[in-house]
Predict the 3D structure of the following.
Amino acid sequence: MNNYFITDYPFSINQRKNSPLINFVNKGLRFLKTGYQVGQLDTSLDMSTVEQRINYYHLLEEVIAYNVPGDVVELGTFTGQCAALFQKVIELTGSDKKLHVYDTFATPFTFKGNVEHELMRNFDTAGLKQPVVHKGLFNETLPEGLPEKVAFAHIDCGFGGDPQEHKKVMLYCFEQLYPKLTKGAVCILMDYNDPKENGKTLDINPGVKLAFDEFFAGKPEKIVCLYGNQYQHAFFRKQ
Ligand SMILES: C[S@@+](CC[C@H](N)C(=O)[O-])C[C@H]1O[C@@H](n2cnc3c(N)ncnc32)[C@H](O)[C@@H]1O
């Protein structure tokens, strides 16, 4: 078992060839013996960074290794970059956890085509079992569509829109999901950004932190900010 798949298509960000400029930069990085190589990120289609996917891999693998009861859910799936990684970890570890994904599949960003079909195609290309798809707005699919118990959740429903609207959606997700999270369950929050923690002022979806601060005030769960390079994310563990 290895986690090299994280950087391969369709788990990786893109199939694009690096531009001559990036190849030149990488040559320079090799020459300087930095140990680093850079890749290109298309922020309208690449929804996670390699650093984030490494964090996702280890957090899900740990939840499975520690036998935290419950299934795996993703609220906001788009074409399934992260979802495919989650299913791959489930299959690599031989876990019987099921992956449930929730989305309207109606936000194309700059993708041209049917988002839901692309999700299914990506799973087929990766040779993975298809996830259980819950199509619709969260207030139509939750809480009925949620499994009885959840061991691992990824909430990723930002689209750079109005922070207050996004906060409302996040609060709804927290209200429905929180009671289903079992003790020890991990919940990852894409775009959670705390400039006090990481000094980064670029805040793509500030509604995430606004909702977390309101919902978790007085609750025992603590947020842990994770390094994600260009994108921010964090997680909490259910107490
Ligand atoms: C940033 S994308 C998710 C990226 C995905 N996790 C990945 O790995 O590629 C955000 C998704 O959230 C979905 N979304 C946002 N608000 C929603 C809502 N209220 N109900 C259902 N889906 C929603 C959008 O349709 C969009 O596909």
The helical segments are 20-31, 50-65, 81-92, 115-125, 138-141, 163-177, 195-198, 207-215. The chain has one domain: 43-237. Residues 43-237 form a domain with the Rossmann fold fold (CATH 3.40.50.150).
